[in-house]
Amino acid sequence: MAASLKAHECWDVIVIGGGAAGLFAATVAAERGRRTLLLEKNQQLGVKILMSGGTRCNITHDCTWREIVDRFSPAARQFLKTAVASLTPQQVIDRIEAEGVLTKVESTGKVFPVSNRAIDVRDALQRRMQRAGTQVQLGCAVQSIHSASQSFVCRCLLTTASRAEESSGDEVEFRGRKLIITSGGQSYPGCGTTGDGYAWATTFGHTIQPLKPALTPLITETPWVRELRGVSVESCRLRLYKSMGQRPISEQTAALLCTHFGLSGPGPMNLSRLVPTVATAPRPSIEIDWSSDMSPEILAERFAEWRRAEGKRQVARATPLDVPNRLWNALCLQSGVAPETRWAELPKNTQQRLIQNIKRTRVELHGTMGYRKAEVTAGGVTLSEIDPHTMESRLVSGLFFAGEILDVDGPIGGYNFQAAFSTGALAGNHA
User: Fold this and answer.
1) Half-sphere exposure of 208 (CA within 13 A, CB side)
2) 139-182: pLDDT as tens digits
3) pTM for this one?
């Protein structure tokens, strides 16, 4: 397949990047009868798909297309309407299931393959693309792009699997009448997403909005939090503060996971785009409400009931809340509850401190895990420079962008994959 390609051929469409957006772009373009070439610098397609969702691949979210776009920023929301309406979550699911990969909806609304194998999703997308007639060149690192004679010329360095770690390789040029750049952002650079596309975009006059890692875990040096590694809570209300004494800059209610380095899970990761990669004094902080479904007054009533019913039991050993025992013990310790204190003996001021810590635990942040653990990149090609009805550049005719390279990033839950699939399909349909 790759060996038979000829450098002097002029393709109807060249797609750079074989991830979520690129696979859909190349498939749709080829299904429209366009001679399509997909260039991928890795030795296999969809590397990031294979890693996503803990190698299970959260394909999309179980909701309407409008509910998908509503989870993005106002600017991205307006931009994504046409794309996501043209390829809805259900249509993505239908395409994958048509290839024999059944899907399921989990309690969070996330859609996964029944097999819990991301490779099944990647293979399904790859099968459909190859059946459509797309030609693929693996191990093809695009070095530069320029336009010439109403076409785009991609100068590439080819490597084989045996020489993938070498800097040397064969140089070749591929020419296409239309070009779709779906090279991703800078998240998970081990997948090959090292931000190459931003330089190509600027070559053609495009503006890049400031880049930062998003959906990445948060770092704290607070010892008792780090000692809770492995503890998770399904629903916490989180408030992010730039510094002490200020109003929260964002709020999120979602699951949280304590780790050996800090905080992870959907809640903290959704807030991470607003946290500096390395936070210096005055440091931002996150306020955690461990019992978001109960007000302080209801907690006080619950404690009073517990005091009457369980008065002889030790407070640290008997929790009236649906939280892990290790977390309850830590909250008691942080509130000054002596290990031997029984519920009937709990001083009122200590109970108030305990309720305060349940509702408003404040944790100082020291940064994020950055791009190496980020699921997406915030920032990218400025949306006002792209036609949202076609994904074509408003600056250069025949040039298209789709996926993470655009200034579009959403929360955890399959929203970013859906945006990539939809924008990729729209670009492939108009290229």
Assistant:
1) 19
2) 999 999 999 889 999 999 998 765 545 455 789 999 999 999 99
3) 0.93
Contact partners, residue 184, CB within 8 Å, separation at least 6: 17, 19, 21, 48, 191, 192, 193, 197, 377, 403, 404, 405
Q: Which two tokens stand for residue 237?
A: 């209300």
Two structure tokens written together for 407? 């200034």
What's the burial of 412, exposed, middle or buried (CB within 10 Å: 0-12/13-18/19+)?
Answer: buried
Domain boundary pick from 369, 390, 409? 369
Residue for token pair 């693929």: 136
- Residue range 296-345, pLDDT digits in tens: 999 999 999 999 999 999 999 999 999 999 999 999 999 999 989 999 99
Which strand ranges, in their side-by-side order, compose the sheet holding 110-113? 60-61, 110-113, 103-105
Burial group, residue 1, by CB count within 10 angstroms (0-12, 13-18, 19+)? exposed
- Cβ neighbours of residue 362 under 8 Å, at least 6 residues apart? 285, 286, 287, 288
Separation between Cα atoms, residue 309 and residue 69, nearest integer Å: 49
Q: What residues of the chain score a pLDDT lower than 70?
A: 1-8, 161-168
Count: domains in the chain:
2
Closest CA to 246 of 356, 362, 355: 362
Question: Could you tell me the residue range of the domain that residue 234 belongs to?
Answer: 217-369
Residue where one domain finishes, among candidates 369, 396, 421: 369
